[in-house]
User: Fold this.
Amino acid sequence: MKPKVAFFDFTCCEGCQLDSLNLDAGQVLDLLAAVDIVNFREVKTEREDNYDIAFVEGSITRESEIPRLQAIRDQAKVVVALGACACIGGVNCLKNHLPMKDALRIVYGDDAKYYDTIPARPIDAVVPVDYHVRGCPINTNELLKVVKALLLGKKPEIPNYPVCVECKMAGNVCVFERGMTCLGPVTRAGCDAICVTSGRYCWGCRGLVDDPNIDSEKDILQKYGLTVEQVVEKFKIYNSYAEVLK
Amino acid sequence: MQKHSVLIVDDEPIVRESIGDWLKDAGYNVATAESGEKALEMIELQDFSVMVLDLRLPGKTGITVLKEVKAQRPWIKSIIITAYPSAGTASEATKLGAVDYLIKPFAPDDLEKLVRETLESLPAEPKALVEAEVRPKPPVVEAVEVRKSFVISRESLKSMVERLGEEMELVGVKARHGRYVYDKIAGFDELCLDYDVTVMPPTKYLLPAKETLLRFKVGDGSQGEPVITAEPRAIIGVHPYDIKAIELLDEAFVGANPDPNYIARRQNTIIMGVDCLNPSPKAFCPSMGTHLAETGFDLLLTDIGGDFMVTVGSEKGAELLAKYAQVREPTGDEVAKQKAVRDEALTKYQLSLDVPRETLPKLLEESYDDPYWETRSEPCLSCGSCVMVCPTCFCFDVQDEMALNLKEGERQRHWDGCMLVDFARVATGENFRHDKASRLRHRIYRKGKYVLERYGVVGCVGCGRCATACLADIASPLEVFNALAESARAKQAAIRAIREVSAGTELYAPRSAELVAVTELTPREKVFEFRFQDGKALGQRPGQFVEVSIPGVGEAPISISSSPTRDGTFQLAVRNVGNVTGALHGLQKGAIVGIRGPFGNGFPLEALEGKDILFVAGGIGLFPLRSLVQYVLDNRERFGRAVLLFGSRSPAERLFLDELAEWNQSPDIEFHETVDVGDGKWTGNVGVITTLMPKVDIDPRRTMAVVVGPPIMYRFVIGELRKKDLPDESIILSLERRMKCGVGKCGHCQINDVYVCQEGPVFSLAQLRRLREAV
Assistant:
């Protein structure tokens, strides 16, 4: 019996689901040979509520999303958080720094009264999550790695070291030596340092490593010219929800 | 033949005279000077090959003289003599180009030998400076010999490099974003030969960030084919410190357990070095003795302005020059120029060790418990940058990567490093180096002590890459060494020749073994019995371990539970805690797995023979210990009294119930058992394992205790055994560590300077006293 796989989205841009499809034809066939995709609104209209593995994209920002997520958890044997919004709250949590009323007014203006909102949160703040596929957007290879591990019944080996490791493996000249600043030293690797390799710096979209040395990273950012406020802003972009930063 | 001239500078007449006589007798022209001023005057007028210089002089000091001589006559070799040695002046004198240091009083033979060796290192004509200018340049040489230096023009070098590029991949140094990197080059004009240091070292071409060790198909019963790929490649412009680093890799990967992947690449690589004339501001190579290289390269260039000197380091290098280049003998002027540019480079190093590098092992040994490790490591990000950029770091992790069809896959290794948080974490969750301070200490010990002691070559080449890469500014070994500074003595090293080595291909390739029986011990633990498909026995000693391989899932170290005295099969008792053990637990009789090993030392049978043995097993510590218990019972007459103490957490977690019952009945072994927490049915002893200790009387003079269990148990059991006056030499333990490769390379199982997979996992407590990370 092939496991049945379903994709769901909450508050997000659905870019991670798009990236999940970013496979070549051979990979698609291999994937479909291994699993049944029963629920994926970006691919097909039919839906089935009987599934084994749920990939959940997006963060939780409205009361109504909570019971829907709980129902998914009840049905699925395995829940995988897909992308920065689901894994760490991501950019949606920027609004958590405002009173919710103000956030609604800024976005919806006079129509704010028709909407409700709660502080944004990652899905594991609501239900237990088995695995995380991180990033904004996700790295398709890492998603496949997790899928393969699930099918083989093994725990996927997701790095618990910072992006610096992969950045060095890629042979990059350090961002700090090039006049920019970077969250790579505290951000979980697994992205092959794609942003730095492409000429930019790390924003921290994969979330922090298990035991990040935040104080040291803040000191370094200041040493390289950021003000205290700029340091805080830099962390906020993706990691507003992280407990160690509060 | 022209006589060499030696100038002796000392303010004591008796010293001048006696040294003068010794050297005259040995056949040198000798001149003397009683002060620095006089010496400098004489050097103005006359050239010398060697100067023997006292450091304490009236007027200008020896160091000042050395400085001025270095500026005026850089080719004069200076030997320092002093009655007042200090580390500071020694390192300063070395920096100023002094070749060696003798402490007064010394024997005539010692000085004579030193002068002779110094002169032998010079080219044939000692001082041709003036005459050489008017002599015609020597003709093109016919025969190129190893160890000799020649002159090659820039054009000839260019054409050699480009013709080499038609045969193999060329890599070299290029500028990028204000730094330098090794990368592929299309031609000579892309090369940078006057760089300071590259971001990543050239060792990445010998041990790439990621490489495949095995390729396998799942389900066909095979254990995978070794994958060894090496394309011919020339690395151009390798600095001497990186050449020294490669010599260390040779030592680690070609010595014990030759690594076929490394060796194939090494043998397909041409190393064309270049002297580093513009050192990086963070470098301290002279302090580590790595600013020049005499071996480890095929060819080594020195930019002498316009042309290059090229030194031949190997037969391969000689062949290359003979085939592709036109070289000629150097003039005396050119030899002097080479020395001058090297000496000038020496003055550009901004950092140096405060103590001789030979004293580092002792210095570190005495600094183990220094609170400095704690404070120094406080800002550490555990980002691994220092170990990733280090040319002498070579640790790795191994993982299986499956294709999406789940039918075929690869076993890959990739860089890993001891500064990363999970490096020493084992499947049961224990992390044997869990805090930043112990990780930093381990790395610095490797650089200054463990590597030197294990491989005989320096573990830090002073390139300064880690200091540049570390954002928290704590990585520089130099700063750590200097902060811990103190003096001591140490030892020298040898270099291994790479060309003659050949490794099999099987180092990482498992052998197929069939699962012939599975027995469940508890819901979490099973015993697996295997037989090799080729019918051969495992050949283990009790206490050794194997690496169990399940293609697509990975490899894990598992201790052997059965004695070699039983049958042609072997048994592995396994708790289900990780990926590989989880997969093992899912296997049925008839399944095929891969086995590498046996690895490790095993229990010391020779030492145990004739003795009384007290076995102490806690929980799954019985797994490895059972192999020894069986061995002793099967060779009962060779051992004295046998006592076994066994503790489980609860009656439900007891293991090998049949054997426990058997041992309980057997006249050959005294058996005592306990559980930490009882249940309604348990009628035996309740309490931790140490509660059994009072039940046994032992004779400490003829008893050996063999203890295997969780780390926490060791502390208490050791305390009890010591109370029974058992000496540490007679307490034998088996340690658990993350033994990823099994062959002393990947670094995960290291305890201080010891690789548990090689020297362990069995140690006496006396051996462990030295290994402070152990228990």
